[in-house]
Model the fold of this input.
Amino acid sequence: MHEMSDGAVVVTGGAGLIGSAVVWGLNNRNLTNVWLVDDWTKSSLKARNVEGLSYDRTIGVDGFREMIRTNDEDCSAIRTVIHLGACSSTTEKDEDFLHDNNFLYTRELCEWSLGNQARFVYASSAATYGDGSAGMDDLDEDLSRLEPLNPYGWSKHKFDLWAKEQGVLDQIVGLKYFNVFGPNEEHKEFMRSVVSKSFEQISNSGEMTLFKSHRSEYRDGEQRRDFLYVKDAVNMTIWLAQNLESKGLFNLGNGVARTWLDLG
Done:
């Protein structure tokens, strides 16, 4: 068992949807030795997401990366890194930005964690599976067959591949979150979950707009997704962080794919 009370727990993306909920989950386990890392300049709503939560300090992304790169003496307190911070926009086209923000940042934290005996848990993504034609098994040996559909998915997939090639997947935990929804999504704006957008539409008009199907085998509204409530995602994340026998890649979902029509 990895004792998360021993030393600081860094949560990157700590003011986001999953990150703020992870901090909530840690607090519910009487853990307040938390460092929140996030880009606090992008949305004033992020500060609202962490109101009422207990933590030791907040740090900006650039400042934290510099601390890691220089192995700042304060970093000696860190014993757990839960790395959820990333650009999660599936429409982002700037591949250089995604390479730095999603791949290099994750690699820096992984290398530092392994070199300093810190538990490293990071967010991969179900977007790495692309259209699913290569399967959706979270097996290390299947990684080379995957074909993500967008630069975001590739930026996540690149780190999974790097970790496998470096032989470190058996020392870290990668989380392939599926369609997570729940409180504290407002800052994501157009990238909010379909559940969040649909709830708003139904509340305002009594109706919801469904995606048009672009595959002949699925009628409009019959496309399927695995929806996962954020507090369930939190319980899985913290459990995997605590259990040292957990290593490699893990799919984090509800386990049942549901249609948009069913959601409505």
